[in-house]
Batch of 3 targets.
Target 1
Amino acid sequence: MFDFRFYEIWRSQEFVQALIDGALTSFWLSSIGGCLGFCLGLMLAISQEKSVFWGIRYTARSYIELIRNTPFIVQLFFVAFGLPLLMDYQWSFYASALLAITLNFSAYFAEIVRSGIDSIDKGQIEASKALCLTKRETLMDIVLPQALVKVYPSLVSQFIFLFLTTGLVSEISIEDLTWAGRFISDRNFRDFEVFIVLTVMYMALAWLFKLLLQLLKRYAFPWAEAEI
Amino acid sequence: MNFMENLFGPFYGNMIGLLLSATRYTIYLSLAAFFGGGLLGLILTVFKISPSRILRWFATGYIWLFQSIPLLMLLFLLGLGVPTFYQIDIPPWLAAGTALTLFTSAYMSEVWRGALESIPTGQWEAGKAVGLTFMQNLCWIIAPQAFRIAIPSTVGFMIQVIKGTSMAYIIDYDDLMRWGKRIANSQLDGAEPFVVFPIVALIYFSLCFPLSLWAKHLEKQARDS
Amino acid sequence: MNKENLAISISGMSKWYDDFKVLTDIDLSVTFGERIVICGPSGSGKSTLIRCLNHLEEHQKGSIVVDGIELYPGMKNPELVRRTVGMVFQSFNLFPHLTILENCILPQRRALKRSKEQAREVAMKFLERVKIPEQADKYPRQLSGGQQQRVAIARALCMEPKIMLFDEPTSALDPEMVSEVLDTMIELALSGITMLCVTHEMGFARKVADRVIFMDTGQIIESNAPETFFSQPKHPRAKEFLGQIL
Ligand SMILES: Nc1ncnc2c1ncn2[C@@H]1O[C@H](COP(=O)(O)OP(=O)(O)OP(=O)(O)O)[C@@H](O)[C@H]1O
Ligand SMILES: [Mg+2]
């Protein structure tokens, strides 16, 4: 009934190495994709401002809705298999994976940052006006820093949620953690044990991300942590 | 599928017809996960706020567990892991349905618990004061109020479920995504990936976007009232 | 009197929120150095009036000239007038993510293009004037309400405005902190700056105001020296109001 044979994984140097490499790949893909996605998301959020040219505003809005209302796997396949044909240039699958992750994450981040911007107290904007700050300065110096702190927890949990879906990149033969799992289970036929180990490793990575992002917060927003 | 052929010509009409008929399975799976997960989530929510400590712990553990396991892993565990381990045959629809139900229930109960907790404790005490039991209090006083708060996020989560079903093709569930991939791999002229995947995306979009609008509308309504 | 020598000159000004008329035919002239206290029941349009003076709100009819600059709806460069008009809000509106010093420095750097050193020097000068230089490196939420409001005053003064607007600066404060802010404002008033202050602090009005303006339902219905206003209010609404508040 509970005849677990985890040693079928540990006994092979090759399997252990595959797991380690896969975990590193997953970690880096999500980290880099997360950073790029955050930058793009920030731009998308800013381009929702009323003062932005309407063409840009609506393009950004449509992009966000399009991404948020379609599954990641479809976006990934389009970027990996469709886009290179359209562009007539075959780039690596790693580039595709990174691009798809960036595009996907950015829309979710944009929506969260936007809600943060909208939730900033009107008094802050009035004070900025009264002090002669321009719209742009008000946004960049006053509103955005406060909005980011406010939505930081949501950004973190969204990032973790999205990170847990990145295993799909193994479908375009990226050798990430999920790929390592399939690699091993195709050889030792211990699917259950392998995916239990994988699950634990994903949880550990998610926990690691949470920890790192907590540290980042302390570093990026010292004022939010200041003692009263 | 005559209608489709008239509209898009024989080739594309056929293709879109195939994709649309596969979409049925995406919808079935979504509905099953949504209602199965909703029911399970409801029970968990009651556990989570019940007076019994053991039930509360169980619910907390459950929610934590199924929010931390990647949905993809859940699919692999139920679709590949369990069948090989116990030498049984689990059809893809059952594995996918179970995985998505577990996933949905954890997130749903989290949403509902949040809504219940936003009801002021005075409401509970008022119910207690007139002699209602825990369940009576919950069903007649608290839940109707919480329901209105929770409904926008609940509708919003349906989008999450629909998008989640797209992963089920990995364990051979025959849905829209699987057919999209199959057609895109067919090497036929006119069925290139850059044609097929946008169509697939558009179908998913037309399932999700109305829900998205609806959720936003409900949210606005709740905010205004 | 020549219009150019007036700090503020409002004539026949009206303002609507959609169909709702908030201000009706306001006429008001303020000379430089004059200190005016505006009072009146809630909803009478006091805030709206002073917010029109630095173009936080637009008026629809009549004219407003502030320091020789005409304000009109949809004007392109309200910064011109905002540079000479400082404002202090009921809810302080300090920037929570900046230290006290940075709160005072940032607007100078951005709007006046001052160098870091110069901005810092000016900021410290005014922080000393409101008597909290030692808090310069703290964040707003680490300060008491009274201290925060004094910082807000210093921050506005750093822009070296000719006119200061106050919108109920003490009404969000705990009672024991009111006096420290009022003392700062009295000190400021005695320095000769032009001041318009919406407040219900009648002690303050008696001490520093040259004129008290009473508003009701969007109109200025009484305007008098404080002694006259307090001892013999003409209008029944003003009498009633004073009866409630004193
Ligand atoms: N943005 C707005 N849209 C519509 N009506 C408004 C708006 N702001 C204020 N009002 C209305 O205009 C009227 C005057 O408001 P104002 O804030 O100027 O009053 P006030 O005299 O400052 O009152 P208080 O003592 O309460 O601050 C009120 O009836 C208010 O409801
Ligand atoms: Mg007011």
Note: The first helix of chain A runs from residue 7 to 10.
Target 2
Amino acid sequence: MSKVTTNTESLPVVASKKFDIGHFARTYMIVGVLILFVAALAILTQGNSIDPRNLVNVIRQVSAIGIIGVGMTFVIITLGIDLSVGSILGLSAVVAASLAQVPGGSLVKFQGVDVPVWVAVFAGLAVGALAGFTNGILIAKFRLAPFIATLGMMSIARGLAYIYTGDGRPFSGLKPEFNALGQGYLIPNAKVPENGLFPLPVVLFIAVALIATFVLSFTKFGRYTYAIGGNEVAARVSGIRIPRVTIIIYTISGVLAALAGVLWAARIGSGNSTLGQGIELDAITAVIVGGTSFKGGIGKIWGTVVGALLIGTINNGLDLLNVSPFLQIVVKGCIIIIAIIIDERKNSKKA
Amino acid sequence: MGEYIVEMKGITKRFPGVLALNNVQLNLRPGLVHSLMGENGAGKSTLMKILAGVYTLDEGQILLNEKPVKMSGPLDGLANGISMIHQELMFIPELSAAENIYLGRELRTKAGLVSKKLMIEATQKIFDRWNINIDPSAQMKTMSVAQAQMVEIAKAIAFNSKIIIMDEPTSAITEREVARLHEMIRDLRKAGTAIVYITHKMDEVFAISDEVTVFRDGTWVATEKASKMDRDKLISLMVGRELNQLFPKVEAEIGEVILEVEGLNRGRLVKDVSFTVRRGEILGFAGLMGSGRSEVLETVFGIYPSESGTIKVKGKEVKIREPHQAISAGLGLLTEDRKKTGIMGVLSVRDNMSVAALDRFSVMGVLRRPMIDRECEDQRQALALKTPSLEQQIQNLSGGNQQKVLLSRWLLTDPDILIIDEPTRGIDVGAKSEIHRLMGELAKQGKAIIMVSSEMPEILGMSDRVVVMCEGHLVGEVSRKEATQEKIMELATRFADEAVA
Ligand SMILES: Nc1ncnc2c1ncn2[C@@H]1O[C@H](COP(=O)(O)OP(=O)(O)OP(=O)(O)O)[C@@H](O)[C@H]1O
Ligand SMILES: [Mg+2]
């Protein structure tokens, strides 16, 4: 019988392991941009921006964008979008804060109720999970476009947050153990309690990013996420249960938004129904700037982390430079458009 | 005017990690059909994309009517009278056939407005002229691959181009449509059009071409008059060695029935279909384009829910409403439409290969990466896959190599029943006989194989038994011994002929 094999060694394949500088530059360009921005701001603000106290501040703010961005990375890889994260953040913040109030005050939501702090945190996260799960069901089972489903949820969750706070006044007077989640440190300084090493929100952000990196790169679920974004029909034919994966992804996004909300409420010591407005835009920008493709199937968590740092630095820098908040919104709009143009170029048919 | 309408000289093209073309040449004469031959990844499509203006060349020169030309986009190609039917169908699914044909060259009313009506009328004329039975206003996404292929063909010939490139135009259509296409080509040739024809089907090459050029691994090997070529010579030029048996049928022991489909119904193309397959058997599904062959198997696999009917695997009835249920029941399906339902373009070769078998490749959801690497590497070698690495995005592979990856995807799931819709679509002769040998081996291991094929020699050469579909009905069954082309064609056209009679 005829034995047919092609000689693989004679292929016109030039050393593929050779260092490809173009590829390297494209991959890590974003890191360079970040360094450039930090340096430029340091000069423009005469060093104020790199003052340690300011840096800690930036990084605490970044952790909210970053935590949400991690969930958003999963969503965008599958060709979805989650516009409801800011509202979910607000809703979870007020729910958690209302249950973490020191009993007895006149502005306490639930008079006479005193639950442990972990219950408050858990309630906040559960609200986020429920909202995310609902998004998932609407998209996977009712076949709504992600944009539409989460736009609806954006409005619903924000509305519920307003209703929940009643007169719109924030829930304050929170227990110190709760506030410690946002203000404390992994290793507190014994003498000066408001100082220490590794701020907790930052530690949690890093933990979330590491876990997500592991999930995307080393688990079946991660492969499925990329596969759905790569070609949903082909993914289904390959045996992937699209609805199940979709629902889990939007639930993750909801839980992470809620986590950011809880940490935020703890950081400022109160739960306000307007928290997180507009943060969805920051998170989406961080994800796209970080190299996740709007065309699906491509994305890395580390990119989102760097993207979040970049957005946080820009936000903070513009504040320090006294740029009007309205102009800041314009600047961010420009950044997202530029990032998408770069994405288009990078991932369109190269030749 | 000179002898050649096109001269391509010293063409070199590189992609990251790949030298796709190395100093190659190609000359075309008006009124002749020039076949471009070569194994998967030899560089045929790349060279033609350069001629059509889709890719820019790194080195070399193109002369049209002895004048050098520079092209920087597909519209430049069209402006120079060059049309191309691409191997990967490139249409906009939301638009109608007419709108796709006139994409970028929309017909306008006197007032300068784009007119759908004008385009539909013009398209209808083209379709009538060439006997194409498709509604010009139908959206492309509602069409089968074969219909879409016919629209692409119409698009290429609609503009009286002087040079028409056909990159595997027959990979998705059956013999009848192939015959019609060849009639079209003869007409065009009479009108003085130069035609480049790329195919992996040997008999077509000799049926249609005047000249043949062979490429191997990105280099030019030979150009000859077709009359001076024969099959063996051509193959040895392509693969660089002799190849004797094209359909190496391995004798396998035929065992008990493993899949029983009974009274399956779904829409217009699956009507009360019943059939069985046994272990060790290769069952061929024959029929014309649009006869429902693919639809039956896609329904069995749960891509579309069936309206009624039962499916039994190993004697037990199974409910299959989604592909994952079919996979759990031990089925695998390599679909017909590579681009739409097969590849995940931006994902790596490795991810594309392993995606359907991740249950086997993971422990409690965590991937066993070394195992994945090892088995993917084995597949790569077994199928002589041409790719710079397993990391490469699958969309950058040549068409035939993408097909090999998809075949590997299903081999890795180790199914009991493997359904393959056009197993060797776009695959070169060498790899083709390797895939046929592999199918034989799988049968020998006691697996059942169901094969849809539009290639009669493949059906006749590989199948132990052939069932024939016509307009959604399973109209007949022939054993390997009785199977002849005439017999199968007679069954396949049964209703059509009755309608005429
Ligand atoms: N866009 C691209 N990026 C990277 N490599 C590419 C790209 N397009 C083609 N190649 C590589 O160039 C080589 C030639 O590919 P080409 O598509 O021309 O082959 P082909 O002869 O048409 O093969 P087939 O018969 O399988 O269609 C292959 O090794 C392929 O992997
Ligand atoms: Mg090709």
Note: The first helix of chain B runs from residue 44 to 51.
Target 3
Amino acid sequence: MKPVFEYTRGMLPEETTYCPGCTHGIAHRLIMEALDEKGLLGETIGVAPIGCSILAHHYMNIDMCESTHGRAPAIATGIRRVHPDKIVFTYQGDGDLASIGTGEIVHAAHRGERITSFFINNAIYGMTGGQMAPTSLLGQKTTTSMDGRMQELSGKPLRMAELIATIDGAVFVERVSLDSPGNVRKAKKAIRKAIEVQEKKLGFGFVEILSSCATNWGVTPVKALEWMRENMIPYYPLGNLKSPEEVK
Amino acid sequence: MSEKVLMKGNEAFAEAAIRSGCRYYFGYPITPQNEIPEYMSRELPKVGGSFVQAESELAAISMAYGGAVAGGRVFVSSSSPGIALMQEGFSFLCSTEIPLVILNVSRGGPGVGGIQPGQADYYQATRGGGNGDYHLIVFAPSSIQEAVDMMEMAFRVAEEYRNPVMILADGLIGQMMEPVVLPNPIPDAVREGILKAKPWALTGTKEGRPHNVVKSLYLKPEELENRIMEMDLKYQKAKEQLVRYETNRLEEAEVVLVAYGSTARIAEEAMELLAEEGIQAGLIRPISLWPFPYEAFDKIPEKVKAVISVELSRGQMMDDVKIGSKGRFPVGLSSRVGGILITPPEIAADVKKVLGVER
Ligand SMILES: Cc1ncc(C[n+]2csc(CCOP(=O)(O)OP(=O)(O)O)c2C)c(N)n1
């Protein structure tokens, strides 16, 4: 009998430390499945960020290192120079990538580094307990914006995918969401394409993955997914912003 | 044997790094070391290596970590304010035990300071500007030749100890030209063996071994304490094995100068001036700044009237000179700062002041 579903060898048999309702685990699995399907698990080097997913290497069954806060794209750049033919990716949250690490992500894209950055946008700083991120929505209550994010004080949320798409070196940019099974499947497709961009040595790839943080948003796991649909997706439109002919 | 060539310090350092097997360099422009990234951008591609002009020193040190974590022999250089930005990476490289050679062609500070030579990064180099219990291993050459000869050793020590090694030079030896004998390039077979000797490096599992993980986070205090104690064992070993220094005329001395880098050469001229006036001065020249050669001070004869730290900073090394002197001698300071090189007559005058001689 042929099994209909098998757990990917890309994930180690560990119980994750992520909270109930957190989508980090789904994002991890999608990336590992995509690599596994392409037979690339043994050819991949990943860089984990500072953030809840610093422990991604507990779960991802590939060579990995931790990074300093926000510097993962620069670290991946160094790895890329030594291993021109491996698959190299960064996995980063929105505090890591869209705040302290803006310089590193913009310039990795600007140099057209042949790496992929998976950007987990959960509109909040998870690991440090729910502070405002550059991606927190207007009116969103966080521990550093108790009355809700105010435009006068903190500006409007940063749309990283759109920003990265303006940079010529970034050849593949897509925003996906993990709020529903249908969107999870689309996310997987985008991740596969982003990896293909790297296999074909086409340039920098960026996948923004809208994610949940039920704990710090102060809602139930089910409500968190609704909150993504009602609040995040309207402000962060899903879809492909850029894709080379070769992977269309 | 290699030929003798006339070379600018910075270019000689870069060439020595390449001959030592370095194939990866990441840097950001800053005076007085710009010749190094310029040289690397020209020369590394010719030997199959990589140069990346980083967007900042934060990125440069992170790229260096990436290159080294992937198993490469990596070199970075910068000058004082740029080295300040790299401190985040230094602490992280020490905690993850990743080898790297760092060159600081130091200039005057604090802040932006100036672009003339300085030695005011002594604390930064030996006490660490990053967080946590860690040490860089620090060597201070006093000539271009010594710097060039040190380079290959620096890579070997970094890899043996799995800890970054800093070569603390100053703008003077970076910018001056001297005849220098470059080392022979290490053989290709040795260079290729470097990666194989790093089983921890991230190279892809090929699904043939358990995954390699390089990490710095230890949430359980007991695990972190064990980690730190393991690192400390290395640092204790370094204190036994890596101390380097030179002494000059210590036995006859009535006063002892302590100086490193370019300043040691100036101090030697001051010793001649003092000898002409009948004052016998000796010299301790620390070559390793961390670990500091405290034991050299045990060789100072009891009759010595004072020990004087000669440095282009306001008594930073003097702290170590005091520790080494163990209260046996009064310790004085002779210094110029701000990018001004101290002169032999100024040192001689400071010595006479400390000795209380009007001659
Ligand atoms: C230099 C530095 N500054 C601050 C921190 C504290 N810190 C840890 S995780 C984090 C942000 C995490 O948020 P995000 O990137 O959104 O990832 P998440 O935890 O939500 O997945 C911060 C600020 C740190 N570890 N290092």
Note: Residues A 50-53, 69, 93-96, 120, 122, 124-128, 133 surround thiamine diphosphate (CB under 6 Å).
